[in-house]
Amino acid sequence: MNHSISKELFEKAQKLIPGGVNSPVRAFKAVGGNPIFIKKAKGAHIYDENDNQYIELINSWGPMILGHANEMIAEAMQKVLADSWSFGAPTRREVEMAELIIEMMPSIEKVRLVNSGTEACLSAVRAARGYTQREKIIKFSGCYHGHADSFLIAAGSGAVTFGTPDSLGVTQGVANDTLIANYNDLNSVQTLVDANENKIAAIIIEPVAGNMGLVLPEKDFLEGLRNICDKNNIVLIFDEVMTGFRLAKGGVQERFGVKADLTTLGKIIGGGLPVGAYGGKTEIMNCIAPAGKVYQAGTLSGNPLAMSAGLAMLNYLNSTPEVYQKLENIGEKITSGIQKINQKMGLSYTLNAVGSMFTLFFTTQKVFDFGSALQCDLALFGKYFQSMLKKGVYLAPSQFESLFLSTALSDENIAQILDAHERSLKEIL
Ligand code: KE4
After folding, report:
1. What DSSP letter does each residue of 272-328 carry, written as one string?
2. Distance, CA 209 to ligand 1 centroid (Å)?
3. Which end of the chain is more exposed for a tag (fewer CB within 10 A), N or C?
């Protein structure tokens, strides 16, 4: 494949933009080589600047669940352009969006719209701190909630009392209020809660984790968190930025039957435009200004153009329940096809999957938390990624990411993906 234009653009971009990209994962650092620059996309395909075609398994990291350039969403945006698209004042569409989110996610009684998943998560934590008048939070290693300072924290030496910054520019002062637990390990949570009695405002978690590769909650893990939060008056925040409206109409909470006190949303909610949201119990959300004393604001929050795209997306998902069975079927066809090929080749790589999300881990060990995900052979993953790219299949450029399927994937696309998978394994092993 000729990637000459992407290469040229990347050289220029690196002189103008840090690392040549506007978000680190796009730089292909984890898989080597230069990133490809996307020119356009339609349905299940994306095209780079040299017009190479790829079958798309990232879908903008989740939002394009109906495939690219969906006509219904495009039309919804075109309809409003003539009426202007940003006012910085309340609009009807924001009320409709709030009503729809509350209908689709029953644990959400009140909701605030923002512009990204990061903003949703940092605001939800601030709301929990304001509501409980407590300062510390617990997050889980391997979970990602955006790039707010409080989340860029690793387990520190004083692990039960404070974390340590995981990024330059994050202060120890901030890190002191973030504690790190292990995914699927309730004891690690209980230990932190016992050592910080009445000091923990919130536990924030990806209820199905996608940012260490896909990791599922083990039986009773989420219920266990719910119980710990109820017993200790801690706000349980489910970060459903990836899973909301994807794993079910009501996200993980519907699929697994455990309700959060606050939920954060993003990606699909904007139909591909920048939208995030956080919401939950009325008594917590009423702490948010101007109803309460927790300040949070945003020039483009609830932006009317983004609302038109998001409303078209969510109204479709809300009124077409069969779309979720279609996503399950597509996910099942791809993952069972991969497993069959691996078994035929005598390979037992771990594949974690749920609905339209999955990760093939280059380890034969079970992957149930960040420590086990780190066992993967990252060099081999890099070779696999590049081999699949050459065969026209566009995967997430990191072992520690989930793939996101869309309803636009046809049986023919799936056959092409499986053929590329088999040929790539033969090439790299
Ligand atoms: P944004 O600020 O990127 O919209 O959302 C942050 C976020 C919050 N919570 C979860 C569970 C997320 O997955 C994300 C963002 N996801 C990454 C993919 N791992 C976005 C891709 C990127 O960083 O470029």
Report:
1. TBS-EEEEE-HHHHTTBTTTSSB----TTTT-HHHHHHHHHHHHHHHH-THHHHHHH
2. 11
3. C
| Domain 4-69+321-428 class in CATH | alpha beta
pLDDT tens column, 29-85: 999 999 999 999 999 999 999 999 999 999 999 999 999 999 999 999 999 999 999
Peptide bond just before 90 cis, omega within 30 deg: no
Closest CA to 361 of 335, 340, 393: 335
- How far is ligand 1, taken at its centre, from the CA of residue 117, in Å? 6
Distance (angstroms) between ligand 1 centre and the Cα of 403 equals 13
| Cα 269 to Cα 101: distance, rounded to the nearest angstrom | 9
* Ligand 1 atom nearest to CA at 143: 11
pLDDT tens digit string along 192-224? 999 999 999 999 999 999 999 999 999 999 999
Distance 237 CA to ligand 1 centre (A): 16
- Which of 58, 125, 144 to mutate to test ligand 1, by most ligand atoms within 8 A of the CB atom? 144
**Catalytic status, residue 239:** yes
Please, what is the Cα angle at 9 between 4 and 13, to 5 degrees?
150
Q: Where are the domains of the chain?
A: 4-69+321-428, 71-319
Tokens of 196: 């910080």
Asked if residue 240 has its Cβ within 6 Å of ligand 1, the reply is no
Report the nearest atom of ligand 1 relative to the CA of 116.
Answer: 4
pLDDT per residue as tens digits for the range 266-320? 999 999 999 999 999 999 999 999 999 999 999 999 999 999 999 999 999 999 9
Where residue 155 falls among pLDDT bands split at 50, 70, 90?
A: confident
CATH 3.40.640.10 matches 71-319 = yes
Q: Choose, from 239, 249, 324, 394, the residue flagged as catalytic.
A: 239
CA 28/CA 212 separation, integer angstroms: 16
Place of tokens 């119980």: 227
